[in-house]
From TrEMBL:
CDD domains recorded: NAT_SF (cd04301)
Segments of this protein annotated with the region Disordered: 590-621
Protein name: Bifunctional GNAT family N-acetyltransferase/acetate--CoA ligase family protein
Span of domain N-acetyltransferase: 8-158
InterPro entries cross-referenced by the UniProt entry: Acyl_CoA_acyltransferase, ATP-grasp, ATP_grasp_subdomain_1, CoA-bd, GNAT_dom, NAD(P)-bd_dom_sf, Succ_CoA_lig_flav_dom, Succinyl-CoA_synth-like
Keyword set, alphabetical order: ATP-binding, Ligase, Nucleotide-binding
Annotated organism of origin: Arthrobacter ginkgonis
Domain ATP-grasp positions: 690-902
Gene Ontology molecular function: any one: ligase activity
Any Pfam family: CoA_binding_2
């Protein structure tokens, strides 16, 4: 992603690039050529072209950035006599200077160099080449500069630093936010496949743009009609008289490749693909990947396919490029959905609740633009104060977690997902699935600080609060009702959801007319809200003669505004959001104009809405969150209270443990991996595991396998009495109750007797191998596990050993890197964790030592994706330290992580580094 939000393709240079490189050089200005070569060259010689394009990708690496098949930038390094240092050089097209091409090349060259043992870069730069000097200075590395014979000599180490990572994240954020901003606020829109047939996709989208009051230029493209929607039609995009920022594609899927090529030739910035039909497995996904590849190669972003559309309610834009029947009410909620069907549900829910939005993005199959891009945009958008996302799949959860955590510190982020999101894929979604426990994805969301809900209705329940109310300052809630029974139900719900009922008023009388009832309601609610232990309030009311719901809601809203505290209203038996309104959506497809699959799922072909998408009942001001169910209201408020507590907490800091030798660990891992190939896994023996773990300051208590009793006695003498005797069987080695372990063996005679007895008992189970180990201090057994998941990347799990994890699945999960707060929460999250802090007379254990061990494991897993599995079972945690009794370490050729240390996007719509 370039600085202007467009895309370009970065790849290694090839020998066949010589003609393209020659054309690139010929198009450069004399100044650019002089700054690169320190002299003017009208052309490159055949010898130079051969040297520049034929590299070994080890000591000499060169990368090119291309747009529309033409090279626009070249970056290269050449290793010097010192094998740990390489000289870098860059050459950027005049047209693309200042667009971030140089910084992207530097990031990728540095990553490639680190993989090949290079630790430092150097460069010779002319003093007048300020742009190149700026690239080095702003990269985030510790750059040293000095003058030598009229040239600026630049040197810097290329290991990532906190500052260089922050620089990359900042550049990524600005570019992705800009790319979506250009799509949501285009200066011109062309609807390709615009139709004269009422109800067709092309007609609906074009009409929506025109009737929504879009402030830019609008063009309809139809190969046959001279006029559509009362305006002139153009046969091809090439005939459109002005530039086009956004092209809306509503043509059959077979025509998509040709239309994308036309858009590339016309310089279109982004594509909104309403057309569906890309979810039928092999052929459909192949078409989808080619669509993304062709668009990205020409600088264009893609929303869709099978998108419901884009909406921006900003009066300066007023864009309704969707199949929605009209422009929704303006508000501060940003909405993101994937499938068009879910987009329909969210749109309808907003309509029912009178809830305004700032912008809506329906990503469809999310082949390119995703929720990550949307969050990058909304983070900076002053018109958006809260974000709601319905996610059916994850493409890059590590990146999602990173962005969401930063965003949620300032704006509430509500995420709706089903229990199988990440485990199964919807049609058309070409991303990975997780092999981790299903709770791991929820743990990732919790760690990110988002408000997790299960359904679109729950999303809207929470959105009503965060989009219109201040955040509560605490758990205290005041309850007001005109029914004692309803008040009690409300109080029970509040306590069950973790709220503290600070006030309960159930004697409110609303039966003597609106002129008296409203002041009485206001006075009582003001009194409740004035209490310092009341941080929010919920008002539940039954119907009363002579008063309207609108008036009651208005009175409630005024009280909340005066107090500066969130107030919710529950109108039991009055609000009914389940009755559909006929004709809310009216979209038909026109054979031959748009593919039948361009109709969003959930939109009726007959011209009426599916059940549940309508709106009815009173129209209550969106400034007052109103509900028909007390349970829904309280659950939503409790979720917001938890979020507010998360936002106020100390987030801690990420601290790398002392005594780590990462380079030594990398050498060991590389040496082990050289012994395997393909998808094989290598289980390290005890010595190999101990050597690798020692690089991260982790010591495993030695175990000595033996064949004879004499060998066992010799080992025990060396280790020191008392000792433990264990079977090497993986299922029995920790099971004292099944005879797999004997403890506190104090002398030779006892050891020999236990060996004979254990062999007799274990023979029936087929467990023959035995080992002897020094006794560890007594304490609480725990399990620490780190694995490399295809979707989540490095995943850390923690639990208490035994039935807690084996039978009850009482695990806590987190994704590295972990802050000090993350570590503390991970250790305290399992239900059985109370045993660590002194429980029923048991002494408290050394929590600091346990957190240090987990931090070391998390750091190891974050550094080394090659470690497919690392498990300590058990870890004995005593009052003054920890002892790792057993380590299982398995290595494998790693799948590429979905969040690499360099900015990259998938060129084909699949899960590769940085894919959004």
């Amino acid at each position: 992603m370039l600085r202007d939000g467009s895309t370009a393709h970065l790849r290694p240079i090839r020998p066949q690039d010589a003609p393209a490189l020659e054309r690139f050089h010929a198009g450069q200005s004399e100044t650019s050529i002089y700054l690169r070569y320190f002299t003017y060259k009208s052309r490159l010689t055949p010898k130079e072209l051969k040297r520049f394009t034929e590299v070994d990708h080890v000591d000499r690496v060169a990368l090119v950035v291309e747009r529309s098949g033409a090279i626009v930038g070249v970056g290269r390094y050449d290793r010097l006599e010192d094998p740990e240092e390489a000289e870098v050089a860059f050459n950027i097209s005049d047209q693309y200077q200042g667009m971030g091409v140089g910084s992207i090349l530097l990031e990728h060259l540095a990553a490639a160099a680190r993989e090949r043992g290079v630790e430092r870069f150097s460069a010779e730069v002319l003093p007048e080449n300020r742009k190149m000097l700026t690239v080095f200075a702003e990269a985030g590395y510790e750059v040293r500069r000095h003058f030598d014979d009229g040239v600026v000599m630049v040197e810097f180490a290329i290991d990532p630093t906190d500052r260089s990572r922050a620089v990359m994240e900042s550049r990524e954020h600005r570019a992705e936010a800009r790319s979506l901003a250009d799509l949501l606020a285009p200066r011109s829109v062309a609807v390709i496949g615009a139709s004269r047939a009422w109800g067709s996709i092309g007609n609906t989208v074009l009409t929506g743009i025109l009737e929504g009051g879009f402030t830019g230029a609008v063009y309809g493209v139809n190969t046959e009609a001279l006029e559509v929607a009362g305006m002139r039609s153009y046969a091809t995009l090439a005939e459109v008289p002005g530039p086009v920022d956004l092209a809306v594609l509503a043509v059959p899927k077979e025509e998509i490749p040709g239309v994308v090529a036309d858009c590339a030739a016309a310089g279109v910035k982004g594509l909104l693909v309403i057309t569906g039909g890309f979810s039928d497995g092999g052929d459909g996904l192949a078409r989808q990947r080619e669509l993304v590849r062709a668009a990205r190669a020409n600088g264009m972003r893609v929303i869709g396919p099978a998108s419901l559309g884009l909406i921006n309610t900003d009066p300066a834009v007023s864009l309704n490029a969707s199949v929605a029947p009209g422009m929704p009410q303006r508000g501060t909620l940003g909405l993101f959905s994937q499938s068009a069907a879910i987009g329909v549900l969210l749109y309808a829910a907003c309509s029912r609740r009178n809830l305004g939005v700032s912008s809506v993005v329906s990503a469809g199959n999310r082949a390119d633009v995703s929720g990550n891009d949307a969050m990058q945009f909304w983070e900076d958008d002053p018109a958006t104060s809260a974000i709601g996302l319905y996610l059916e799949s994850f493409g890059n959860p590590r990146k999602f977690s990173r962005i969401a955590r930063r965003l949620a510190r300032n704006k509430p982020v509500i995420v709706a997902k089903s229990d199988v999101t990440g485990l199964r894929l919807p049609p058309g979604h070409a991303v990975r699935t997780t092999q981790a426990p299903r709770e791991a994805v929820d743990a990732m969301l919790q760690q990110s600080g988002v408000i997790r809900v299960a359904t679109n209705e729950e999303l809207m329940d929470v959105a009503q609060i965060v989009a219109s109310q201040p955040l509560p300052a605490g758990r205290g809630v005041g309850l007001v009702a005109n029914s004692a029974a309803l008040g009690r139900v409300l109080a029970d719900n509040a306590e069950r959801n973790g709220l503290a009922v600070a006030a309960l008023e159930t004697g409110l009388d609303l039966e003597d007319g609106q002129s008296r009832a409203l002041p009485r309601l206001g006075a009582l609610l003001d009194e409740v809200l004035a209490r310092p232990d009341v941080h929010s309030a919920v008002v539940i009311l039954l119907p009363a003669r002579g008063t309207t719901v609108e008036a009651l809601a208005d009175a409630v809203g005024r009280c909340g505004t005066r107090a500066g505290k969130p107030v919710l209203a529950v109108f039991a038996g009055i609000l009914d959001a389940s009755v559909p309104t006929e004709g809310l959506f009216r979209v038909d497809t026109e054979p031959g104009t748009a593919d039948p699959e361009t109709a969003a799922p959930g939109i009726s072909q007959s011209g009426t809405a599916d059940p549940g998408t309508g709106a009815s009942g009173p129209r209550i001001d969106a400034a007052v969150p109103a509900y028909s169910s007390p349970g829904n209201a309280v659950a939503a408020l409790a979720a917001v209270v938890r979020y507010a507590q998360w936002r106020r907490r100390d987030f801690g800091e990420t601290v790398e443990p002392a005594g780590i030798d990462k380079d030594r660990a990398e050498d060991l891992v590389d040496a082990h991996l050289a012994r395997i190939s393909g998808a094989e896994l290598l289980t390290l023996d005890a010595a190999g595991a101990a050597e690798l773990l020692a690089c991260y300051g982790i010591r495993v208590l030695e175990s000595v396998p033996f064949e004879t009793e004499d060998q066992a006695v010799a080992a025990a003498e060396r280790l020191g009495w008392p000792v433990a005797l264990k079977t090497t069987d993986q299922h029995l080695r920790h099971r004292l109750d099944l005879g797999g372990v004997r403890l506190n063996i104090i002398d030779e005679a006892a050891l020999r007797g236990n060996i004979r007895h254990m062999r007799q008992m274990l023979a029936a189970a087929g467990a023959e191998g035995l080992e002897v180990q020094a006794m560890a201090p007594s304490g609480q057994g725990c399990v620490v596990r780190g694995l490399e998941d295809p979707l989540l990347g490095p995943l850390l799990s923690f639990g208490l050993a035994g039935d807690a994890v084996n039978l009850l699945g009482d695990w806590a999960h987190a994704i590295p890197p972990l802050s000090t707060t993350d570590l503390a929460e991970l250790v305290r999250s399992p239900r059985a964790a109370r045993k660590l802090f002194g429980y029923q007379g048991l002494p408290a254990v050394d929590i600091a030592a346990l957190e240090d061990l987990i931090n070391r494991v998390a750091t190891l897993k974050d550094h080394h994706p090659e470690v497919a599995l690392l498990e300590f079972n058990p870890v004995m945690v005593s009052g003054d330290g920890i002892t790792v009794l057993s380590a299982d370490v398995r290595l494998g050729n790693p799948e590429v992580r979905t969040d690499s240390a360099r900015r990259a996007m998938s060129a084909w719509g699949g899960p590769v580094p940085g894919a959004a």
